[in-house]
Amino acid sequence: MPEFxxxxxxxxxDGTLAETEELHRICFNRAxxxxxxxxxxxxxxxxxxxxxxxxxxxxxxxxxxVEPERAARLAGHDDxxxxxxxxxxxxxxxxxxRAGEVAPCPGIxxxxxxxxxxxxxxxxxxxxxxxxxxxxxxxxxxVLPRAWFATMVCGEDTSRKKPDPEVYRLALARLGVDPAxxxxxxxxxxxxxAAKAAGIAVVAIPSLYTAGDDFAEADRVLGSAGELVALxxxxxxxxxxxxxxxxx
Length: 248
Ligand code: XBP
Ligand code: MG
What we know:
Elements: E1 4-5, E2 8-11, H1 21-34, H2 43-49, H3 55-66, H4 68-73, H5 80-98, H6 108-117, E3 121-125, H7 130-139, E4 149-153, H8 166-175, E5 182-186, H9 189-197, E6 201-204, E7 220-221, H10 225-229, E8 232-236, E9 243-247
Parallel strand pairs: 2-3, 2-5, 3-4, 5-6, 6-7
Antiparallel strand pairs: 1-9, 8-9
Helix pairs in contact: 1-5, 3-5, 5-7
The structure holds xylulose-1,5-bisphosphate and magnesium ion.
């Protein structure tokens, strides 16, 4: 892909800003145990279940797999039983994230600082719940300053989750940025597909749970956010005295 001008970077959260999915998995399991349910998601279970984005959607998929009779009695992932389990999981996760149990991914602090220095707009496009994102930001105010992000589109803000492009379209609309002048940063196949369907170029940086994903649709696959620092820069623009930010 040739160098092109960018006005914004749009970041996924889980697996991209921070390696969060192990804490998510542990908190799902704790919520199940507290409710007296005999369900424990192993790492292998969770890797498979992660192809379903959204915690409530994931819980309902599991129930369909292991207790189809129970699933048949529920009103899908919006059923109060699923909502209650997920609400407790969110409480547990947000408490852990706020206590600093998840750290920003390597290179993320440097990438955010570089993007700010270039004057790029920053946004969040995630399927996770807003409380989880707020807790992550609250735990790392120095390297993840909430005020640096012009907008945060979270799981509650869309009717369809990734790989649907809705979350990216909403982020673009709120930023007032053309898709051709944005760059998405993602860790999963579903995230890459969502950004591409919104017309946004995407850099994939595989994470713990997505290392085996197919990233064929990504414009670039990198080993860490630190590698992206060197790929964003600026050049002299058409207007004298004004530079243009670029991705190469
Ligand atoms: C993340 C998700 C989320 C989290 C859990 O996907 O799918 O469901 O696993 O968060 P992505 P919730 O990184 O592609 O946005 O339980 O709040 O849904
Ligand atoms: Mg992700």
